[in-house]
């Protein structure tokens, strides 16, 4: 893929006359780990919904590589290789960590890829690689129900990785995590980015700092500021919005 992996140009979303997104433009390059922050109601969730096709833009264009997503439906967009992790983990408690990953593989993007995996007996190797990546290899045989909150979040990220997405959208991954789990999550997302692109919506600014890459600040449905965490935290427009001065 040449050019940006994700490209929003002048995107607006209007709900009953209310502009949840207002002429939002955003460019994410391949391999980037982008954080999106902003006060409640800034439009972060609506932005994720527009990228995944859950909500149609009222105006503007959304592109994923060479694909125009603007009028595509949710299933077709997921098939292109965009994975989304919602805030609450949705793992299967009564299955083991390994089985959860196996199940994610058995819901393939296309049936032929599933068949190929099984024929090549590559599934176990793929699950093993993802277990290592999410740091849960020693817990492979444990039921998901006995994992900590943080470990369940990592397992769900692993389930998305089984689908080999090119772009991963992650909604508030560290809410409710311990400090140590938060640090480990930052390290995990840094590992994942590079080969894939990752967009993280988050409230925890220390976590965003640990992610260490470009930050986009949304406010009233549009981009208020963009740059390093230090640059945006020192931006007078951002200070005004967050502190209400
Ligand atoms: P954030 O995720 O940054 O908190 P949202 O994208 O959830 O912001 O919401 C942006 C604004 O759009 C909010 O004021 C919210 O009330 C409004 N909004 C979101 N979804 C809908 C909807 N389906 N209908 C009407 N208003 C909505």
From TrEMBL:
Keywords: ATP-binding, Nucleotide-binding, Transport. The keyword Nucleotide-binding applies. One of its GO terms (cellular component) is plasma membrane. GO terms for molecular function: ATP binding; ATP hydrolysis activity. Signal peptide: none annotated. It comes from the Bacteria. This is Urea ABC transporter ATP-binding protein UrtD. The gene is urtD.
